[in-house]
């Protein structure tokens, strides 16, 4: 939808990405947990305004995770996800 708020759209896609990765982990509980965490993190999406460097960095981190998964490099995927979570916490002062 072209009329969607870009911040809301980014938050929705961010949640979908994390839930998809959780589902791919094979851990049945992880997608439910991630879904809850992402639901509660919506308040931080307002910090991710279009043009904000956080959006660009987040997308680069997501791409690194996706690339590692698609290449079958589970250790790299795990490290990339750990780095992403750590950086997100720093960006949002959590």
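-> sequence recovered:
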């Amino acid at each position: 939808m072209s009329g969607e708020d870009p911040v809301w759209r980014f938050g929705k896609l961010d949640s979908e990405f994390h839930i998809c990765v959780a589902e791919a982990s094979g851990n049945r509980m992880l997608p439910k947990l991630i879904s809850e965490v992402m639901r509660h993190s919506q308040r931080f999406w307002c910090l991710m305004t279009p043009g904000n460097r956080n959006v660009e960095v987040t997308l680069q981190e997501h791409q690194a995770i996706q690339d590692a998964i698609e290449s079958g490099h589970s250790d790299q995927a795990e490290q990339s996800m750990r780095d992403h979570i750590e950086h997100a916490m720093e960006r949002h002062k959590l």
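The mean pLDDT is 84.
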